[in-house]
From TrEMBL:
Species per Swiss-Prot/TrEMBL record: Pseudomonas brassicae
Domain of life of the native organism: Bacteria
Protein name as catalogued: Mechanosensing system component YbdG
Keyword Cell inner membrane: yes
Swiss-Prot/TrEMBL keywords: Cell inner membrane, Cell membrane, Membrane, Stress response, Transmembrane, Transmembrane helix
Amino acid sequence: MDIQLFWQNALDLWGSLDQHPLLHAGLGLGLLLAIALVLGRVARFVILHAFKLLGRQPALHWLNDLLQNKVFHRLAQMTPSLVVQFGLKLVPELSATSQHFLGNVALAFTILFLVLAISALLDALLDIYARTEHARTRSIKGYVQLAKMVLFVFGAIIIVATLIDRSPLLLLSGLGAMSAVILLVYKDTLLSFVASVQLTSNDMLRVGDWIEMPQVGADGDVVDITLHTVKVQNFDKTIVSIPTWRLMSESFKNWRGMQQSGGRRIKRSLFIDAGGVRFLTDEEEQRLGNVRLLTDYMARKRSELQAWNEAQGPVAALSANRRRMTNIGTFRAYALAYLKSHPDIQPNMTCMVRQMQTTAQGVPLEIYCFTRTTVWADYERIQGDIFDYLLAVMPEFGLGLYQQPSGSDLRAGLLPATAVREQRALSAETAEP
């Protein structure tokens, strides 16, 4: 009896609402909104849990990227607006104008969440692409950002057109008249997009490349390529953000070729004191001929010089008419043989020791070769070991490294003259009566 009485009172109350149309319509809208929110929660729960179960399948693991970027979450958020949009016809006492306006608002929310879902889908596709082999050489982040920018612009136009109940073409025609202003506002974006396309299509820059651009203080690895900027982490762990368009309008050095070749160049000179350059004596030729790295060179050079001197005839008796081996030439041959036998020097790349033009600092002997590794720390170690050894072995050839005199050298040179003056002054004092 109590239940029947309750339902009877409820029906009587609902029937009395016919006398109050605004209250009737308000209660209907409130009930519709409550139902829409409940259905939205249910749809979100069902969709998310269903795709979580599907994402556990190895063949459908890419669904986890869609879940992490909230693609299905955004799609589920469209449910309340869709329920409101199609349920307005069931609300009693609702005028046609109110129904049309509320329908447009619900449609605008539907379009908004659809745009957000497409944006999340683009982010998910970017994450999926980042795990592929192509992502190591070509970045599509700039294209994704441009697509999202276009998506949001057109989405905003459609939402505004829906709210004001006008055709989107009307707003687009107005934007056409503002094209000059749009080009001015988005100048950097357009320049960056064109530069990003050129950098990617010409394979000029990749994530992980070591680039050097002194004019912006960049010297390190590329960590991110976006539509507007390229982020470079310098070797001191600082981050430099370079506008993408500057990489096309200005020059930069990319060390990728060195890294791919498998060898890094050593190009450094030893400045030999020109005062130590001379001919080898017979004893030095005999001693250096026993050096393992010089055995073939000394034998070949002796035969060559002997044949040339014998061809000169009696004039070869004069020292100036004879060809003889020099200590700097022999040291150059030894350094080259040492480099070619070094286990850390790349044998398939250029390797030479060349004498450069003499300067005020001495005679430069340039070491030019490539290491077998491109790792920075190993490269510096190999380079240091090579020059340590060459500096230490140089006196064996009667050569010395040029070094500008320091204060201690000047004092050592002036000490004998000072001692002589002091001795003279002391002698003069003792000679006085």
